[in-house]
Amino acid sequence: MEKIHFSRKQLGIPYALFLALFVVIPMLLILFYAFTATVDGKITFSFANFLNFFTSTAKLSTLLMSFTIAIISTAICLLIAYPIAYILARSRLKKKNVLLMLFILPMWINFVLRITALRELLDLIGLLGSQNYLNVIIGMVYDFLPFMILPLYTTLEKLDNSYLEAASDLGGNKLTVFTKVTFPLSMPGVVSGITMVFMPSMTNYVVSDTLSNFNITILGKLIDEYFTTYDNWHMGSMISIILLFIIFLSMLFSGGFKENKQETRGANLW
């Protein structure tokens, strides 16, 4: 039987169709609604949604609140995850992969079930309803901590020990070796972890709604309200575009730390 050969272009057709249907077309619709407004039943081009967002105290307060919660949650995740990832990656334990799996296992459980269980725990210890901001931050850290541990562990696991040995041979103590060699070389994992935690923390309104009894509104909740409650696709789309722009800046920043530059940096650090 004669074999059928497909070119790369032909193999890429299904992927291109998928991108067009589920990425490009939805993005064009969001852009269309973001920069239009309905006046007397007619859709006209307008920057009113953009101006409305940045002149509205309530929307800017929501953006600031989202940033604050995301920054605090990300910082706590980093402070907890880095020592864990460092100990697991640099230790000689034979079962360290099993230990790593213990931190990843919660992600296998349904997200809503985990947050509901955490809500019951907070209610049991008397925090639910009285410490809304604290509860939301606890929920964000609990939910996204594995996403900080994984990239840090992967980066630290791949560190070339020769750099660390060279730093020690040149007289560096453990603190100096860590601050001047280990931590700078682990920056790709740090940036990747921050990106994976910071942006979802701004939009995961299931956590904020469940753990604050709907008393805290973050950016993701605001988008949902404009699309569903207010039936205002124009403003909802504009907020989505602003959020996408923030994500773009975050990805642009993280793109500056590429793994293939690691050895060059390591050679110049000491």
Describe the protein's architecture and organization.
It is built from 14 helices and 2 strands, in the order ααββαααααααααααα. The chain has a two-stranded antiparallel ribbon with strand order 1-2. The protein has 2 domains: 2-34; 57-232 and 259-269, MetI-like (MetI-like fold), CATH 1.10.3720. It has helices at residues 8-11, 13-34, 48-55, 57-90, 96-104, 111-124, 132-157, 161-169, 174-185, 187-203, 205-212, 219-229, 233-254, 262-269; strands at residues 36-39, 42-45. Residues 259-270 have low confidence and may be disordered.
Discrete helix count = 14
Q: What is the name of the CATH architecture of the largest domain? A: Orthogonal Bundle
- Kindly report the spatial arrangement of strands forming the biggest sheet: 1-2
Radius of gyration: 23 Å
Beginning-to-end CA distance, first to last residue: 62 Å
**What's the order of the H and E elements?**
HHEEHHHHHHHHHHHH
CATH class of the largest domain: Mainly Alpha
- How many domains in all? 2
Molecular shape = globular
- Helical fraction: over 70%
Tally of DSSP β-strands:
2
Poorly predicted segments: 259-270
* Major sheet details: 2 strands, antiparallel
* CATH fourth-tier homologous superfamily of the largest domain: MetI-like
User: Class by helix and strand content?
Assistant: mainly alpha
Average pLDDT taken over every residue: 86
As for the CATH topology of the largest domain, it is MetI-like fold
β-strand amount: under 5%
